[in-house]
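User: I'm writing a tutorial on reading structure tokens. Could you give me a worked example: one chain, its sequence, then its tokens, then a sentence or two explaining what the tokens reveal?
Assistant: Sure. Here is the example chain.
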Amino acid sequence: MTGTPSLPLRVGENAWIRTRHQFFTTSMILKILEVAEDGIKFETCNTIYNLRYETVPAESGVICA
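And here are its predicted structure tokens:
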């Protein structure tokens, strides 16, 4: 799954995840299995999520004040 988690993720709490098409909450986080630069893997009561962070394209314009 590719998306953006609402950080920080905490064991014992739900995660909020935004993807391109939806915004949803998970069941309670049981374990955080892996943390990397490009994503996070964690286990909830119902699912093991392998969440790859959604990349944001670099801005091509310059903003001046």
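What the tokens reveal: The chain has one domain: 2-53. The CA atoms of residues 22 and 42 lie 19 Å apart.
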